[in-house]
Design goal:
Blueprint lengths: L4 H14 L4 E5 L2 H12 L3 E7 L6 E6 L12 E3 L8 E2 L13 E6 L2 E4 H7 L3 E7 L1
Antiparallel strand pairs: 1-3, 2-3, 4-8, 5-8, 6-7, 6-8
Length: 131
Amino acid sequence: MRSDPVADMLTRVRNASRAEHEKCDIPSSGLKVRIAELLKSEGFIKNFRVLEDSKQNTLRVYLKYGAGNEKMISGLVRVSTPGRRVYVGHANLPSILGGMGVALLSTSRGVVTDREARKQKIGGEVLAYVW
């Protein structure tokens, strides 16, 4: 899917997690690398690497599983799409599963989680919900 690269990334990670794959490869971009950094810092993925090549770099995401192959990502939803942008102010930031999940926001200070946006008192475009 070329019209929405973020949705493509989230779909690849979701499908790989459901199929219990060890890793998944995604065409890389700066936004996707930042999303992978946030997923790693929140404990949803094990690690990621950017593989250099001559065309477009590849982002390799290593998925994380708990005891008994329990999936760390049970839900991954794209909120804002190219046809329907969703913006929130800092007073209306969403809380996902009472703080168990995270909302990823694109703000004027970069891509951050809903917790970080609350601390900085900034709003922005809601990219995705992860739980």
